[in-house]
Amino acid sequence: QKRVTVADLRRARREGRKIACLTAYDAAFARLVDEAGTDVILVGDSLGMVVQGHETTVSVTVDEMVYHTRLAAAGRRHALLMADMPFMSFTDPAMALRNAARLMQEGGAEMVKLEGGAGQMAVVEQLSVHGVPVCAHLGLRPQFVHKIGGYRVQGRDAASAQALCEDARALEAAGAEMLLLECVPVSLAAEITEAAGIPVIGIGAGAACDGQILVLHDVLGITPGKPPRFARNFMPGHERVGDALRAYVEAVRGGRFPAPEHGF
Ligand code: KIV
Ligand code: NA
């Protein structure tokens, strides 16, 4: 079976087919996520929380991302494999290039994701020029948790909504292949998706995005504590993990997830 490529993702956006994405951090789950028909597997730095048990993602290192990307690569067959650039791993273009190269060459990733706005244009340009496909993560950026003072919806007032639209435009112009919007109002996410020329993936960003992503542990209902409002546990009604993952993929493809209650 053919691998999913960035060209396939662009075509899906053009043709209005929803893109289904999930995280995975090891071979066993990457295999299940892949077999469920997921288009993109993200080795997210959320592993700092859901795998390592930390309170935030800020302690995750490049070595750890490379390790988990390699594990996920071993279980993946069909999906495009994307890996997160962890906190402080892309503070200048040369460093970003070095670390992205490790995720691709040692880890086996085909795309990297980084949290950033227009301030990361030089980094995205450098990666793009050297053949590294970049997904720019906008809106709520969990690596900024200590600067924001918590996890909350972004782009609620006119000024920050305007800034988000400009960030999206700037990053696309810098060469980003994909955008990811986390926790932004449904109407703003729809506006950014409409204006973009590249696929836009949402998490807590409403149904108008070109695709959706959730953290695997939230989909399986095994995240300790209260799940985020934008997530949905797909396990109820299913006996097997694979069936729940397939239900998620089908709900995204069929436009049944996210529902209005998952949005802001
Ligand atoms: O690290 C992660 O899992 C992510 C997704 C929530 C988008 O960045
Ligand atoms: Na992340």
Automatic annotation (TrEMBL):
Homodecamer; pentamer of dimers. Binds 1 Mg(2+) ion per subunit. 3-methyl-2-oxobutanoate binds at D45, S46, D84, K113. Its EC number is 2.1.2.11. This is 3-methyl-2-oxobutanoate hydroxymethyltransferase. The gene is panB. The keyword Transferase applies. Pfam families: Pantoate_transf. One of its GO terms (biological process) is pantothenate biosynthetic process. SUPFAM superfamilies: Phosphoenolpyruvate/pyruvate domain. The active site is at E182. Gene3D superfamilies: Phosphoenolpyruvate-binding domains. It catalyses: (6R)-5,10-methylene-5,6,7,8-tetrahydrofolate + 3-methyl-2-oxobutanoate + H2O = 2-dehydropantoate + (6S)-5,6,7,8-tetrahydrofolate. The keyword Ribosomal protein does not apply. It is found in: Cytoplasm. Belongs to the PanB family. Its main location: cytoplasm. Mg(2+) binds at D45, D84, E115. Keywords: Cytoplasm, Magnesium, Metal-binding, Pantothenate biosynthesis, Transferase. Its cofactor is Mg(2+). One of its GO terms (molecular function) is 3-methyl-2-oxobutanoate hydroxymethyltransferase activity. It comes from the Bacteria. GO terms for cellular component: cytoplasm. Pathway: Cofactor biosynthesis; (R)-pantothenate biosynthesis; (R)-pantoate from 3-methyl-2-oxobutanoate: step 1/2. Catalyzes the reversible reaction in which hydroxymethyl group from 5,10-methylenetetrahydrofolate is transferred onto alpha-ketoisovalerate to form ketopantoate. Transmembrane segments: none annotated.
